[in-house]
# Entry
Amino acid sequence: MGKVRLLVVTVIAVLFLLPSFAAAQAKPPQGTVPAVEGMPIAKAQQMLSSAGFNPMVAMEDVTDQGKGNIVLKQGVPAGQVLPKGSRIPVTVGRYKPPVATPLPQVVGMKAADAQKMLAQQGWSVKMENNPVTDPSKAGSVIQQVPPAGSHIQKQQPVTLFVGHYVPQAIVPNVVGMPLARAQQTMVSAGLNAAVAMEDVTDASKNNVVLKQEISAGKALSKGASVPVTVGRYTPPAPVPVPKAEGMKAAAAQQMLTQQGWKVQTNSRPVNDPSQAGSVVQQVPPAGTKVLQAQQPITLTIGQYQAQTTVPNVLGMQLQKAQQTLGAAGLNAVVTMENVTEHAKNNVVLKQEIPSGKTLTKGTNVPITVGKYAAPAKIAVPNAVGMPAGPAVQMLKKQGWTVNVEKKTIFDAKQNNIVLQQSPAHGTQAVPSQQVVTLTVGSYQAPAVGKGGSIGVYPNVNQPGTINPPIPPDTVRK
# Structure
């Protein structure tokens, strides 16, 4: 019985080994495993089948919709050589869309309570602080994103904005202030100045606030930064003035302008025709080092004019003097001066530029010309009957020239009294041109002759007994 069993086992073993031995002897064809990772399953199956292999598909759940029905990995590495007909295991993604759920309302809840509730419901929660000016909103949810009622997947994060109370500060106006003062002003308001420098060409704006990014009056959280722009002035380096003297005016101006200089021009008469239209002087001189932006260059351009000699017109009548100067190419500039001599009326009294001097034609020559105005006439006052002395003083005080003539009289009461005047009282005359002659009485007592007759004794006078004597300088001998 035992021998039978042994025989049976031996036969079975032989029968089992015969196919393998035969297969080994047959040497089936080989193939190279292709790379199919990342391919859609249909294309991967087709590629493996074309290569002579049998794909063995295993599914794996994925949350990325883009990996659905895509080969995630292959069990046999690409490039390995296997007998054709071998099985190649591949893992393929299987995507199931998540269920969208309405998001509950949590705005107004305390942040901790809202976070706990959403987490218990399976939501992914993020929290961010948001400044608030109302202290009652501190620590509460003031906004949720997405908003309540939105149908979303629970894998999608929900952001809760939580109120964070920060004391407020009002932005002051610091434009135009020096930087140090502006910073102090900001600090006093509970804010910080964030300074940015900007180059300026005006020295007065150095270290001065040019602008502020947040306008004055706006409310900010205390400690916030307010960007301000501050001027920074760097003095330009002096540069030497180029040489323009001797150049033609147009070329000099073009050269200086192209180099960035400001140019001013004026003209000056020249005697040399070759200098006409050329720069005969420049200020500042060539080579002087100056600040180009602040220093203009003044060019003096030669203007040639014909020369002439000043004639002598003193003593000439005005018309003749003007003609004489005009003939010399000059202009007479007339100033009138009052004169008392009629002979000097309309006559040149002086000329400011002496004769013989060389001038440019067209130059003005100032001259002074006499202007005579006849003095006004007045009435000759009445001196008849006055004592001689007071009469003479009165007339002289009024500007009259007085001549006194004496006349012998025998009436003692008329001694030294003006008996007559010429011109007569009321005559119109010019005091400075008119002599008033006064005839003054000179008393002589009568003499008694022989036989009782009365005679006249020469040189017998009794002056001073009745009237004052006549001033000696006015008496005509």
Q: What stands out?
A: The chain has six domains: 27-95, 101-165, 168-233, 239-304, 307-372, 378-476. The first helix runs from residue 2 to 26.
